Amino acid sequence: MKAAILSAPANIAERPLRIEEVPRPSLQPNQVLLKVRACGVCRTDLHIVEGDLPPRLAHVTPGHQIVGDVIEGATVELAAGTRVGVSWIGGIDGTCWYCKHAMENLCDLPTFTGYTVNGGYAEYALARADFVFPLPAELDDLHAAPLLCAGIIGFRSLRVAGVERGERVGLFGFGASAHLAIEVLHAWNCEVYVSTRGESHRKLAESLGAKWVGTEVERPPCQLDRAVTFAPSGDVVVAALASLRKGGVVAINAIHLDRMPQFDYDSLLWGERQIRSVANMTRADARDFLKLAAEIDLQPQVTSFSLEQANEALLAVKKDAIDGAAVILP
Ligand SMILES: [Zn+2]
Ligand SMILES: [Zn+2]
Hints:
With about 325 residues, the chain is an alpha/beta fold. It is about 25% helix and about 25% strand. Strands 3, 4, 5, 8, 9, 16 and 17 form a seven-stranded mixed beta sheet that branches. It has a six-stranded parallel beta sheet with strand order 12-11-10-13-14-15. Helix 4 crosses helix 5 (about 180-185). The longest helix has 13 residues, at about 285-295. The model has no long low-confidence stretch (mean pLDDT about 95). Bound molecules: zinc ion (2 copies). One zinc ion binds near residues 42 and 44.
């Protein structure tokens, strides 16, 4: 099969992914083999490919928003041909303190798809049978792929921020995850305030019904109940904090930040404001979100790339050159 392989992380401009012909993975116990139909491109893939996240394997195939058909390892619950999704959490140990306290997203020994095991920038991929999610028929391959990380983790961010119906919510940054979160927020009758760089991202936010849209240096015109930051920038976290009412929450939806700048406690955090990070996801997040996505007919904006264009897709994500999400069709 063809697969995109990372052997040495490097700046994406140096095209570190090589498209190679490799053996199709062989089925392992409790796993399924998927024929990949589509694989979304996530900013975390960029952090892996560029080495912001230290390599865990000598060679790895990235990609953790996989839409694929079960072709081997079928079970009674998961028949051959079932179309399923795979996300960033590819497995847990099931035995650590966090797993035993219903916090599987914080597992001490997790499997991360496309990082600690090979992912979906390939024609075939293996996945743990208990970590695949049957996909609603309403969602086609291309539009289901970005839901599997950008969508689920955006949804989890809203939960971590404690969003309640009808609240004022800020989205700081408006890429793949935020443009899905805004639709969920509207389904909950929230007012959405978007602060983002990039004229086309601002236009997209307007077209999706944001109450207010500004640049990355502008502040929403009112105090917010909740905010979610999507940019890998600590300055953005501080900007979000500065927009909150007392008792408000900022949820940071980023696996990596450039740095966390010093900020003034008295004016920004005092008053029971909170900063929380969003780490990974649970299977319940995935199931709840995919169900909601089908109900509200969530349609991501997508730009598709071939497997041969995997480096270009990541470069586009890095440069914020596309609106919505990038998806690889192998
Ligand atoms: Zn665990
Ligand atoms: Zn991701």
